[in-house]
Design a protein that fits this description.
Elements lengths: L22 E6 L5 E2 L14 E5 L1 H4 L4 H5 L32 E3 L1 H7 L3 E6 L9 H14 L4 E5 L3 H13 L2 E7 L4 H8 L4 E5 L3 H14 L3 E2 L5 H6 L2 H10 L7 E5 L4 H15 L9 E7 L4 H8 L24 H11 L3 E4 L1 H15 L5 H15 L8 E6 L24 H11 L1
The structure holds pyridoxal-5'-phosphate (PLP) and zinc ion.
Amino acid sequence: MHTLRVPAGPLAAPAPDQLRANVTGLRCRECGAPEPVGARYVCSDCLGPLEVVYDPAVTARATRARIEAGPPSLWRYADLLPVLGPDPAHRVDLGAGLTPLRPAPRLAAALGLGELWLKDDTRNPSGSFKDRVVSVALSAARALGFTTVACASTGNLANAVAAHAASSGLDAYVFIPEDLEVGKIVASAVYGAEVVAVRGTYDQVNRLCSELAEREEWGFVNINLRPFYAEGSKTIGFEIAEQLGWTLPDHVVLPVASGSMLTKVHRAFGQLRDHGLVDGGIPRISGAQATGCSPVAAAFTRGDGEVVPQRPDTIARSLAIGDPADGRYALRVAAETGGAIGHVSDAEVVAGIGLLARTEGVFAETAGGVTVATLAALARQGVVGRDERVVAMISGDGYKTVDVLADTVGPTLRTGPSLRDWRTARAARG
Ligand SMILES: *Cc1c(COP(=O)(O)O)cnc(C)c1O
Ligand SMILES: [Zn+2]
């Protein structure tokens, strides 16, 4: 197991504006037991998941001015992200983050909502929000001395790991279910990663990778590096606040696969408040799932707090995690903040993709369709209010999942090549 070797002698005092190591250890999210910094993710006492513990003297350096003067990527929030050594050479940065927060008045009108914003994470280097978590995880991997990184993926994570590994000279193994969308397979293989197509569901891929993580000297970004990986999702929350002029919205709607993103966006809002970077109440946080893989939404509806695993069957492949690692935490966040976890059919997902594209000019993958359709459902139910300032998370690019639209969109007018052909065709259309 890789453990961070802290140099014995005193480090040269860094200049105040320099990057400083800020992680003092890991801690169990269930029992609070401390664990040393390293590639580990389960508590040795209770097997609970681990999270990063920060040095408050370093995180306190985060001010609005310091953040605004930082790079145009998620690394502007470096003081609030895991930095394992004083050496910025470990940083893996393809420019993930600081994606547009777009006003969406036309979509808002279509849904009967008031003020609506889209967090447009289609604009990341490999086209999804996973570039955020990977940028942070691979930076930790390099600081911990890994030369090979890996992941269990529903597609987007594989793309992000392959791209970021290529950019930083790391070897990559990405494990995916063999029946993924062609676009997502190509967009991993092109970067030179070893793409391992597994005959099984994502949950089986994940189990295999958990076993491999015990045997190989590899940094699995969402397994043994998961505490670091998860921190990357906080940057969505940081950016929303900064882009709204250091204020918080009233309600945020996010897609749920493992539930990590939703949980960490909530954490980000809390951290911003703790550091005095924003004031006001924590937003309501709602989650979105596809009915064909909705274990967290089902648990929310039952209200018993227990997430019962499902076998996924949905076109929203990027969200198809039947046994979500952070499902229980996501449930708790939705309940505590007054949000909800909703679910929508595959037909509604396709309709949601179309509605978003036609009203706002943003082409999202299936996960974005899940979010927009769930937002529509929550608006109908009155869970999301007309008087609220709402942010919807659009987490991936539609060019990766064009296959799901092939039956519903295509040429709308056919004509021969002459002007007369055109006039005939145009007239026939009416
Ligand atoms: C992975 C993924 C999610 C959800 O992430 P979790 O943190 O696992 O809940 C949402 N949208 C897209 C496009 C993804 O690839
Ligand atoms: Zn524990």
